[in-house]
Amino acid sequence: MGAPTVTLTYLGFHLLFVLPVVALLLWRRPALPARRLRVARAGLALMGTVAFAYTTPWDNYLIERGAWFYGEGTVAARVWLAPVGEYLFFVLQTVIAGLWIYRVDFDPTPTDGDTAPLPRAVGALALLALGVVGGWLVAVGPERFLYLGAILVWACPVIALQWAVGGAFLLRRPRPWLVGVGVPTLYLWAVDRVAIGLGVWTVADATSTGVEILGLPVEEAVFFLVTCTLVVYGLILFEWVVIRLDRRGGRSERTDRAGGRDADREAPPAPSVE
């Protein structure tokens, strides 16, 4: 008689692969000036709330369409059609990407040329075009493109909006967001591949292209890339917009590289992002 098979549950997946990363990033979180700390917390809260609200109906729609399903014994409870672990993932991924971009660090200070219209318009229109393609794939395209099309129609309009607001700024300072997006995306690709291999969830053959990258369905790779992009762009541009609004409101225009005001330099050390 062989050894009994141990099933990794969705919540167990979080305990093994997600929560330890959150804990590590919290432990190694950078110290921020007081004002920037407040903005960072507000940005993380906003991104987490938007991620939860915006992803929930999309996720449940695809579960209903059979785009993916879960292994026997891997789901402890469901709300609507999605497992509780799925809802946790919406928020925990946001926290991972958010804490990481602050670990990488970025300078949100506005400079001349940050609102140049051409790069903003070109990027936004290109992303909107991808969103239209995604909508067509969902509505009338071949069934095997359902998952990929749903990702494009769900994510591209939002990234287009982000690019329309601050695309010129992002283009002028690409290194922080490239690292900020790239590292958590690679990690999430790896653990997603492990989860699929262990049968925690399975991408359905009928609604996916069948194209894989080292065993990872290309749709999953695209999903984690665009979701990390949404979070990182959102947090960077949130700080950038706050500083611009402060300047219009008559606050001091002098900003240190950490994104705080002169008053923050004289304040006692602030607690770190939590």
UniProtKB/TrEMBL annotation:
It comes from Halobaculum litoreum. The keyword 4Fe-4S does not apply. GO terms for cellular component: membrane. It is a multi-pass membrane protein. Keywords: Carotenoid biosynthesis, Isomerase, Membrane, Transmembrane, Transmembrane helix. Pathway: Carotenoid biosynthesis. The lineage of its organism: Archaea, Methanobacteriati, Methanobacteriota, Stenosarchaea group, Halobacteria. The keyword Transmembrane helix applies. The chain crosses the membrane at residues 6-27, 39-57, 77-101, 121-139, 145-165, 177-201, 221-243. It is found in: Membrane. One of its GO terms (molecular function) is lycopene beta cyclase activity. This is Lycopene cyclase domain-containing protein. GO terms for biological process: carotenoid biosynthetic process. Residues 251-274 are annotated as: Disordered.
